[in-house]
Amino acid sequence: xxxxxxxxxxxxxxxxxxxxxxxxxxxxxxxxxxxxxxxxxxxxxxxxxxxxxxxxxxxxxxxxxxxxxxxxxxxxxxxxxxxxxxxxxxxxxxxxxxxxxxxxxxxxxxxxxxxxxxxxxxxxxxxxxxxxxxxxxxxxxxxxxxxxxxxxxxxxxxxxxxxxxxxxxxxxxxxxxxxxxxxxxxxxxxxxxxxxxxxxxxxxxxxxxxxxxxxxxxxxxxxxxxxxxxxxxxxxxxxxxxx
Length: 243
Hints:
By secondary structure, the chain is of the alpha/beta class. The protein has helices at 21-29, 51-65, 78-89, 116-127, 138-145, 151-160, 176-179, 206-211, 225-228, 230-241; strands at 6-10, 33-37, 70-75, 93-99, 133-134, 164-165, 185-190, 215-219. The chain is globular.
């Protein structure tokens, strides 16, 4: 008999909670409950944003919705955010699931986890506008983020993206408490993910090793499976989230 779970889905850079809608539809059709929130500074024009405000938005939602024993999911840069949120949410989380996560090391910023050329590009972008925001270029998005999708799907997904504040990515992250949490974790590896070049700065196995030991679920597809193959991502989430 299949277990039914309650998922709280946290997006990554340049997204809003709407990016999960296709995955949510599949999960709900399979009897699961889903929640997807939009973090501050994503589509709302807010620029006074910090990592702590991201975390507090998650905690506030969990409290307001009275969630308990739910599966907390973080995609990409949302991975570090949910790790920090887990410190506050404790055993209300049944399992933490990370999808192709970008994880800061304890005491470092997310900009230190990306290839140096990317960090330099983001810093230049932020300095070039009054709001200290960054946005992924279409050329990078098309092949590095969502190369497994048709151009039509890739364009439609790109049109949903929004600039995001650069500041939170430059904050040093204290993960010493997270490292001690007795929390069940799963890692979803998107097998065609080349958001960072394969090699020294590739997401896998570099990010997996930071949270291992944990369950590993492999799924074929790119970094943006919520658009390119939501059915496959939903299936991977079900496998990753089960007890």
